Amino acid sequence: MYKQCTDEELVVLLQQGKDRAFDELYIRYRDVLVRFVHQRMKSLDIAQEIVQEVFTTIWERRRMLVIQKKFSSYVYASVRYVTLDYIKAHAVTDEYVQEVVEASSPKINSTEDYIFHEELQDALQRSTDLLPKKAKEVFILSRFKNYTNKEISEELNISTDTVKYHIAYALRFMRINLKEFYFLLLFWLV
Hints:
- By secondary structure, the chain is mainly α.
- The chain contains 9 helices and no strands.
């Protein structure tokens, strides 16, 4: 029934809450969008996550959806923006976690510095211990032993895409678990 509909007709049906219209749009664009993102991100898992996020947002906002041109242009633009946001967010996360890791072994000048250093070390260790096994192994090799993604891939016998996925996961996890230390770290390093 919906296979013969144009994208524009499906969008109208989607705005009316027809979930099969949504399914048809998803089926039409999912694979091509995943390939599009995968070319840029070099990770199939991340590409699938980004495309899923875009379509989840489309579904959640279906009643308010305003598409000026074609649906294909809209969905490609959405995927590009979410991909850029992902890159920006993970660049910041990576820098933040690296700051925390580097700050875990600074020069200690006072009792206050020593206490903060010990608390930071404990929090970093607790957060690392909470990671799933494979993400923990990858994170330790990457951030504490300074292995490259290729070296980690060879050491753990997993693909470099899987290494990147585990690093991204671990960094998100660490950012959430260490957020209370971020502002303290800023003051401590100044």
